[in-house]
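To: structure desk
From: M.T.
Subject: fold request, one chain
Message: Could you run this one when you get a chance? Sequence is below, nothing fancy, just the single chain.
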Amino acid sequence: MFQIVELEDVIRVPPAKFGQPLDEVALDILKTKYESTINPELGYIILIRDVSVGHVGKIIPGDGSTYHKVKFSVLNFFPKIQEIVEGEIVEITDFGAFVRIGPVDAMLHLSQITDDFLTSDVRQGVILASKSKRTMKVGSKVRVRITAVSLGRGATIGKIGVTSRQPFLGAIEWIEEDLKKASKIVEVESKTKT
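Reply: Done. Structure tokens follow.
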């Protein structure tokens, strides 16, 4: 889930940055500290925005820098277990596929795609179901449910596991086919009742 969160912090402005616009310096410092990081409470921090910096700073003896309180917003992506998301397959491997959801790639294991027997062709970037002949390939749009999330503090990579082994999950084209079949069945049943 994408969200905007309001945060507060204290930044250290080194003497080399004195004379530059304080708002720009604060934004640069916050971007360096927060953007493209993972936080267990916030998830993936994507963007810093709306920085408001206190123009009166504090000086600590022995340190020539000034310290300023800042309030700012972050755009973050926090994957929640059981959340249903849509993404795109970006890589096929021997053991499954990687699905891009938001700013991160989630692992869709072969055992979590469908009940059918699957074969993976890494060279062609395709996963093929033997009975139904359905395929997933690099570029396919999919709807999946998040089943596992592991976010480490300050890391740049987290681990997310997803599944599509439930009704109305999987490749979007599969879902559309299933919906058409279901609507035809409903039409036939309604005609036989009247």
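Reply (cont.): Residues 84-188 form a domain with the OB fold (Dihydrolipoamide Acetyltransferase, E2P) fold (CATH 2.40.50.140). Let me know if you need anything else for the meeting.
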